[in-house]
Amino acid sequence: MNAQERKDYILDILKKNHSVKILKLSKELRVTRETIRKDLYELEKEGLIKKIHGGAVLDSSNQETDYERRKSEYQEEKTAIAKQAAKHIEEGDTIYLDYGTTTLALAREIMNLKNITVITNTIPIVNLLLHSEDINLLIPGGMLRKNEDSLYGPFASNNLQNIFVDIGFFGCGGIDDEVGITNHHMGETMISKEMIHHSQTSIILADHSKFGSIAFNRTATFDEIDIIITDEDLSSETYEKISQKGVEIYCTEDE
After folding, report:
1. Rounded distance, CA 67 to CA 48, Å?
2. At what angle do helices 22-29 and 33-45 cross, to 10 degrees?
3. pLDDT of 163
4. Which of 38, 53, 150, 158 is the most buried (most CB within 10 A)?
């Protein structure tokens, strides 16, 4: 088990039990206590946990919310963004659907499209499109991130090296007018980075709550993406700042 797998395991245990002990983790994972301390230090640096004497607890003030919980947040906005995004897809297109709950909303919108090839490593999207007769589904595979139902890692990256798409639709954890596009999980971010460079058109799907936030890993700078689709609550000041960087912004109020 490598460092990222250990950290995912630790987070899974924390979400179930709310606290972990270094000694117990050391025995379960068959590594030294010093290795566990290093993993906990890195997780704390990412803002996901707080170290305590002999172990750690979740940092409830700054942790990434669970996938199921995020699906219920800003549902109307995500649906409107998805409807706007679907307008960019034409019959015969090959598209990539990235990690996230807004890309899941887009998957719902395209279920009845014809002659579309969808590449995704998000299991909820796979389950949704599995029986859509006119959608060709390609799953690169990889290591399972259980709390997000996603696949990532070197196996996924290797399988994507020679795959190129017409449009890539990407979620995010934050959009800052200086830093760019960021996300939470390093392994998922590496896959997203790769597919942004393998997309003829790269589109970010993000509700207004993502703007002004910075997550742990940078996914892309503004010159690496083409379009951002968001909802009507985006401030005019933010709209202007990002538009000046050469990125097209579509707001759902423009429908």
Report:
1. 15
2. 110
3. 96
4. 150
Residues of the chain with CATH 3.40.50.1360: 68-254
How would you label 77-93 residue by residue, b for 16+ Cβ within 10 Å and e otherwise?
A: bbbbbbbbbbebbeeeb
Where b means 16+ CB within 10 Å and e means fewer, 95-124 reads bbbbbbbbbbbbbbbbeebeebebbbbbbb
Start-to-end CA span in the chain (Å): 48
Q: Which two tokens stand for residue 254?
A: 């423009």
Mind listing the pLDDT tens digit for each residue in 63-109? 454 666 676 678 889 999 999 999 999 999 999 999 999 999 999 99
DSSP 166-215: EEEEE--SEEETTTEEEES-HHHHHHHHHHHHTEEEEEEE--GGGBT---
Name the architecture of domain 3-58. Orthogonal Bundle (1.10)
Nearest to 64 by CA among 153, 164, 161, 171: 171
Angle subtended at Cα 183 by Cα 135 and Cα 163, rounded to the nearest 5 degrees: 40
The answer to pTM > 0.85 is no
Type of residue found at 236: S
CATH 3.40.50.300 fits 68-254, yes or no: no
Please give the pLDDT value at position 48: 81
Q: Using the 8-state DSSP alphabet, how is residue 122 labeled?
A: B
Domain with CATH 1.10.10.10 in the chain: 3-58
Q: Alpha-carbon Rg of the chain, whole angstroms?
A: 19
